[in-house]
Design goal:
- The protein has 508 residues and is mainly α.
- The protein has one domain: Up-down Bundle (Amino acid/polyamine transporter I).
- 74% of the residues lie in helices and 3% in strands.
- It is built from 23 helices and four strands.
- The protein is globular and about 60 Å long.
- 56% of the residues are buried.
- The C terminus is likely disordered.
Length: 508
């Protein structure tokens, strides 16, 4: 038994058992609905209504904030709105955008694309809510910022009289995040490896890599480790360069494929719409397409899961609502735009139902769609895949490390230990097949939402008041972020505005 087979056997059996628990299903409308997916989607719908569709009304202002139109020179933080957004997007605009969409279509049919699109709009509101809390309850110690659900669940719920519940939810979320970051890392490594092996097939190098995929994992781990060691500033700078570059690069490649198949585009759009509401499909009908679409959209944009607030909490701002609005752009860019264009590329080329693609990995299906338009385009996709995987591995290492250090108080030795374990999963993900990797990654990823969404519901009143108050200042022309001075603590600012004694988070 070689290394690949050993890891497949041990890791695969565990992942399958764990996934069965997390994705518990209830029979409904002739199909089975995972409870956890419904839990997350309903949260997005709840905040879309509660915030009066601010996710759509505030998009222009959010773009202005990203462009630096409202500078805050005196605000605490380590990154601009653009850099914080790029760091978070480097996690969501990953291989879920390429491979995850292909998986959604092959499992749920073309109709799943429509429901991914709808889920993306709801996800914007959830992302706004959790990232506002991430900034409001972040902690700054010795110039280092720590934020995320482990802090706002503990501090926010303690203020509301739920101290024990808050402490439990915070610890549970942080524990899951430590492991989920490794699982997501494994998925990125797995799909990047699958594409590299596919593109090298038929050569001596391809034969070697097919039998020793762990080698690719080692190479990815070495390069990722070189950036991860530099910490969040290093990750933010790298993301600020790579994310816009790879997004434009990938978008243009998809646009070429669509132009080559322009005559098929109207038919593809009609197929997506008809399958989204078709009740007698082999893939489970409209309900099956909806479930698969929502599940893959949630994995792609991570709204409700709570990882993004860690990245957004490093922003330089005095008002939590500013980064909340900016965070809403994340699901829009990832799920509404990039996932949709990937899906159209797969549908117009017919790659989704090509018999040659039966059993193929998600990224390989997308690659074959590219090849059908331009023979050498799979090489273009390979570059995009590796960049997507690399940036996602970087950002997830930061998420997992911050969760790990929640228990170890930012201990440098503990950080190093976690980073080493994290990079080991880059190798494991490369070596094993897709099924156990995606089962494990999805399970840990969605489990975090159980802890996070409870806190979001309980603090929904605070979230609404901050957004509404900020939006009234902005629309009345009274907003002057540049002249604002940084309060000793952002929660003190909330105290003054709402006359509610929020727990004060100490800063050294």
């Amino acid at each position: 038994m070689n290394i690949d087979a050993f890891l497949e056997e041990k890791f695969g059996s565990f992942a399958e058992s764990f996934s069965a628990i997390i994705f518990f299903e209830i029979p409904l409308f002739g199909t089975h609905i995972p409870v956890i997916v419904t839990w997350i989607v309903v949260c997005g719908l709840f905040f879309t209504v509660k915030l009066r569709a601010l996710n759509l009304r505030g998009m222009k202002h959010a773009c202005d904030l990203v462009r630096g139109k409202f500078p805050q020179p005196n605000a605490p933080g380590e990154a601009t709105h653009f850099q914080a957004l790029a760091t978070a997007v480097s996690s969501t605009v990953g291989l879920g955008t390429i491979a995850g969409v292909a998986i959604a279509i092959t499992v749920g049919g073309p109709g799943a694309v429509f429901w991914m699109f709808i889920a993306g709009f709801f996800a914007m509101s959830t992302k706004m809510a959790e990232c506002l809390l991430g900034v409001a309850f972040r902690r700054i110690s010795d110039g280092k910022i720590s934020g995320g659900p482990m802090y706002y669940l503990k501090s926010g719920l303690a203020h509301m009289g739920h101290r024990k519940l808050g402490a439990f939810l915070a610890a549970g979320w942080a524990a899951c995040m430590m492991i989920a970051a490794m699982g997501t890392n494994a998925f990125q490594s797995n799909q990047a490896t699958a594409q590299l092996v596919s593109i090298a097939a038929g050569s001596a190098a391809g034969d070697f890599l097919a039998s020793n995929k762990w080698v690719i994992g080692v190479v990815l781990a070495v390069f990722a480790g070189a950036v991860i060691i530099g910490g969040v500033r290093s990750i933010a700078k790298a993301a600020g360069v790579l994310v816009p570059l790879m997004t434009v690069f990938y978008f243009m490649a998809c646009a070429v494929v669509l132009l080559v198949n322009i005559t098929e585009l109207p038919g593809a759009l009609m197929l997506i719409l008809s399958e989204a509401f078709k009740m007698d499909s082999a893939t489970g009908g409209a309900i099956g397409a909806l479930i698969i679409g929502f599940q893959r959209a949630t994995y792609a944009n991570s709204a409700g899961v709570g990882d993004a607030p860690i990245a957004h909490s490093i922003v330089k701002t005095n008002r939590p609502a500013t980064e909340g609005l900016v965070a809403g752009l994340e699901p829009f860019a990832d799920t509404v735009i990039l996932c949709s264009i990937t899906a159209l590329t797969i549908v117009v080329t017919g790659a989704w139902n090509d018999p040659a693609n039966v059993g193929a990995d998600g990224v390989v299906i997308t690659s074959n769609a590219f090849a059908s338009a331009v023979s050498w385009f799979p090489y273009v996709l390979t570059v995009a895949v590796v960049l997507f995987a690399f940036t996602t591995i970087m950002s997830n290492s930061y998420y997992g490390m911050k969760a790990f250090c929640y228990f170890f108080k930012d201990n440098p030795i503990a950080e190093t230990v976690y980073k080493c374990f994290f990079l080991c999963f880059t190798v494991i993900g490369a070596a094993v097949s897709l099924d156990p990797v995606i089962s494990f990654a999805d399970s840990m990823f969605f489990l975090m939402a159980v802890f996070n969404v409870i806190g979001l519901y309980l603090m929904s009143g605070l979230i609404k008041r901050e957004f509404i108050d900020y939006w009234q200042l902005y629309t009345s022309g009274k907003l002057d972020l540049e002249s604002m001075t940084a309060p000793k603590d952002i929660t003190e600012m909330l105290d003054a505005r709402y006359e509610v004694p929020l727990e004060i988070v100490s800063r050294k």
